[in-house]
Amino acid sequence: MSLSNFVKRIRDIMRNDSGINGDAQRIEQMAWMLFLKVYDSKENDWEFDYENYESIIPENCRWRNWASDDRSGNAITGEKLLDFVNNTLFPTLKSLEVNKETPIKKSIVKTTFEDANNYMKDGVLLRQVLNIIDELEFDDYNEIHAFGDIYESILKELQSAGSSGEYYTPRAVTDFMAKMIKPKLGEVVADFACGTGGFLTSYLKELEVQIKTTKDQEKFANSIYGIEKKQFPYMLCITNMLLHGIDVPKIYHDNSLLRDVLDYTDEDKFDVILMNPPYGGSEKAEVKNHFPQDLASSETADLFMSVIMYRLKKNGRAAVIIPDGFLFGTDNAKVNIKKKLFSEFNLHTIIRMPHSVFAPYTSITTNILFFDNTNPTKETWVYRLDMPEGYKNFSKTKPMELKHFSPAIKWWDNREEITIDGFDKAKKYTVKEIADRNYNIDLCGYPHEEEEILPPKELIEQYQEKRASLNADIDKILGQIIDILGIDFTEEE
């Protein structure tokens, strides 16, 4: 089939259905159907490879037996189709019997449908959408790779689909981070808030070129691990992994912050961690109880930084996206997290990214921390990636591309300090210099930035972050003055 207008054809049909309310529901509707189509294609392969393979899905609910239309005029449609989907398909898949012995490639069907919904109310329109999806041929290698581009366009639409946009990290960023982390066959990469699997697919793309033998293929198939808290991106991630040749996707529908970090053993650690932790939000108060008191923070990005440090193998490598607030924050939790990072890990590189990388979802400026679990940090390089020439902002029509990272890639292997118009663009700092700044690593910032009016929520978050940092600095200086003067307030009480 022609894939160029695949998404448009489905969008045009769904717009006529009264049950679909907005882009987010349209994409979610498309997601569960794509999953079942991809899964059915995979089951064809598994039936060929394994003589006694049995599907976990009852025969009447397998895609081939209800969704496929052989054009004989017998395919169910209209009210009969709606009744089947709402009262047979969904209840059956949500209640599949799964236990600890159930293979992952089977149990993912139930976890994928746990919170999924059918929004369409017109059975005739639903049949039209099913027919378009059924035209996809996933046993055709070229079509699978071509569909990868269409899948990308579906993920990109998450940016403008309300809150769903939080799951999407621009592909240029995930590709850059995967490239610089230098994947190796036999290693396992983890993402503890994996969303739709962008980091994992970028990592697999880098790894795929190393496959030469059947043994290499086996290593490739066991190279990813992910956790996703929310149902919808989890569903997309599972489908994404199946499309990328991962027959047993070790992706779990869970919350990475609900386990005591001190309980992690070597078996819970990974060779590589690639992440864009959720930021700008907070978890329930009891989540802090899973962290040592000095690292307990109400900011999710801080908590994930601790999880990453506790789950990175000895000699492992990590690349993590962090908002500016983490760099300049000097409240107790942030300082303690950064102290741990510098004293137990080697934070060798910080890449400052230009503003609007995540537009239109957020205006918050972000950075990439590259570190490894080898030795304590001795020195840290900071590199400022400037906005490409001719760009004032990135946008939906002019997004960031991998080529925009070219200056950073060129600099990476031939590092030198760079100063432009009196402002540092690239500079090396000793760990002592950083400690003397109370671990404020807001370095090599952007000069002459135009004032940007942020949305109220982001403006308040930024203000709270800076106020907390300022208060921490004031308390520290007051404490030093009190020590110098030898004042003991307890005597005056």
Describe the structure.
The chain is an alpha/beta fold and 493 residues long. The chain has helices spanning 6-14, 23-49, 63-66, 78-94, 104-113, 123-134, 141-156, 171-181, 198-208, 214-221, 231-243, 300-310, 324-328, 332-344, 406-412, 431-436, 456-485, and strands spanning 189-191, 224-228, 251-253, 270-275, 312-323, 346-352, 366-372, 379-384, 418-420, 423-430. Helices cover 43% and strands 12% of the residues. β9 and β10 (423-430) form a beta hairpin. α2 (23-49) packs across α6. It is elongated and about 90 Å long.
**What's the helix-strand series?**
HHHHHHHHEHHEHEEHEHHEEEHEEHH
Amino- and carboxy-terminal Cα gap: 82 Å
Q: Major β-sheet, in short?
A: 10 strands, mixed
Summing up helix and strand content along with how strands pair, one would put the structural category as alpha/beta
Given as residue ranges, the uncertain stretches (5+ residues, pLDDT < 50) are 161-165
- Please report which band the strand proportion falls in: under 5%, 5-15%, 15-25%, 25-35%, 35-45% or over 45%: 5-15%
Mean pLDDT: 87
Estimated helix fraction: 40-55%
Q: What is the CA-based Rg, rounded?
A: 25 Å
Features:
493 residues, alpha/beta, ten-stranded mixed beta sheet, 17 helices, 10 strands, elongated
Summarize the structure.
The protein is of the alpha/beta class.
